Predict the structure.
Amino acid sequence: MTTYSFLPKPLIQIFLGSVFLCCTSIVTADEIKAFTAQSFDEIKASFEGREFLLGLWSVDCPPCMVEMEFMAEVLTLNPDISYVLVSTDSIDQKDYATEFLEDVGLGNKESWMFADSFVERLRFSIDPNWYGELPRSYFFDVNHARQSHSGIVSEELLQDWFSRLLNFR
């Protein structure tokens, strides 16, 4: 039985087992995927009919580090939450990014890195209203309706996302 330790008990009982199980292997630098203008559609297609979280970050973003440490704790307690990471750094920095992900405890998550020097095109492919502020998170329901958030994700935001998913069903 899956439990979501940051959710109130009634929500835990209703929401059990409805989120896709995340992979458990460690991501290596060779496994970090190149994020192009078509990658966002590929990510969404891989989660067709399932909810997921998308986290955008950078190796030189202090608030991103705070959020990633928080998310690593949340995912340790709730390993069934699907969480995809996209680094806005150049894919040339993938060795450094991989080391960081492993150190913070997110080395087992699907990871991508920007692979186009025209970063505005990549940002636009994700969200035309996103101008590069980090950290940036997207909460997707099963139909991939999304809620965006700039800044560090909080427990309250995660609870709100799960509550909306439950009301949607």
